[in-house]
Amino acid sequence: MKILVTGAAGFIGYHLAQALLQRGDEVTGVDNLNDYYEVSLKQARLRRLQEFPLFRFHRLDIADRLAMKELFAVEWYDAVANLAAQPGVRYSLVNPNAYIDSNLVGFANVLECCRHQKLKHLVFASSSSVYGANNRLPYSEHDAVDHPLSLYAATKRANELMAHTYAHLYGLPVTGLRFFTVYGPWGRPDMAYFSFTRKILAGEAIPLFNQGQMMRDFTYVDDIIEGVLHCIERIPEGSGPEALGSPATGAAPYRLYNIGNSQPVPLAQFIETLEAALGRKARIELLPMQPGDVEATAANTEDLERATGFKPHTPIAIGIAKFVEWYRSYYNAR
């Protein structure tokens, strides 16, 4: 297959592009290499991808309509995996325009290019953040998600609605994937587990918001990638009028799936696991709840399992150990 991966120099985009190349697919990667976090890490990921002869890279921003049109004018794809986005809940409080440009304008450009090329399948990254104020756990794709708590979450929910519109109007097959707290080697420095590791090794205090009373459905990146690969192969069809009323299904060729480990971990247990992997004790600073955050996340993955036969399974202790091993090697940290 010939697949376009947007955000190919990002954390999940890099891992997906690598997995596709390793199985023999031809991959075109795009990324704008912005400085939201250290560009050198993105460049290091990119260098590893460029070792594959079937990988081509274009430095461009999906919010650049003309550049996207030119890209699709010269290349034809069997599928597109849209992982380019401005991530982060807290950053959306201080720089909302970055989310409008990348997550809304950029995604609209992707949809337009895919529909004009009559693409066979568009898969895109959504987020567990869309569940917002929904406090019924585990989160189900069939629950209403009408109360986002951050602009980031609102843009991701908007992506889901935009995608459904294109599936309905133009018959564009689209699958949205709600990722749950992805972690692992080559991860994002703005993520808590990454910054916790850096601070513990430096002897600095780590901030625990909501007085540490948090739970997260930590999902190892290899599980996320396996789920994405399964979903790329499964092109959605319309489910019929009887499916209307659920955000996840409908008469259009459109589906939504959670991809999470389905085993939420209390933050205290997560820190103990990280301490064990690092061989260091953490200094803790307890802080109030942050705006836009939620106390707990947990994924119901029954739909994903029924559709693909796959269920994320990596235990937190194994995943964190692999991350710490990579971190020590990449940063020469002891």
Helix and strand layout, with pairings?
Layout lengths: L1 E5 L4 H12 L3 E6 L7 H11 L5 E5 L5 H10 L4 E4 L8 H4 L1 H21 L5 E6 L23 H20 L3 E6 L2 E2 L8 H11 L2 E4 L6 E2 L2 E2 H13 L20 E6 L5 E2 H12 L4 E4 L15 H7 L7 H16 L3
Parallel strand pairs: 1-2, 1-4, 2-3, 4-5, 5-6, 6-11, 7-10, 8-13
Antiparallel strand pairs: 9-12
Helix pairs in contact: 1-2, 1-8, 3-5, 5-6, 7-9, 9-11
How would you classify the helix and strand content by structural class?
alpha/beta
Question: What general outline do the C-alpha atoms trace?
Answer: globular
Oligomer: single chain
What's the end-to-end separation, in Å?
A: 42 Å
The radius of gyration computed from the alpha-carbon positions, rounded to a whole number of angstroms, is 19 Å
List segments where confidence is low: pLDDT < 50 over at least 5 consecutive residues.
Answer: none
Order of strands, main sheet, comes to 3-2-1-4-5-6-11
Number of helices: 11
Order of helices and strands: EHEHEHEHHEHEEHEEEHEEHEHH
Describe this protein's structure.
- The protein has 334 residues and is of the alpha/beta class.
- It is 41% helix and 16% strand.
- It has helices at residues 11-22, 39-49, 65-74, 91-94, 96-116, 151-170, 192-202, 221-233, 267-278, 302-308, 316-331, and strands spanning 2-6, 26-31, 55-59, 79-82, 122-127, 174-179, 182-183, 205-208, 215-216, 219-220, 254-259, 265-266, 283-286.
- The strands form four sheets. A seven-stranded parallel sheet has the order 3-2-1-4-5-6-11, sandwiched between helices. Strands 7-10 form a two-stranded parallel ribbon.
- α7 packs across α9 (267-278).
- The protein is globular, with a radius of gyration of 19 Å.
- The mean pLDDT is 94.
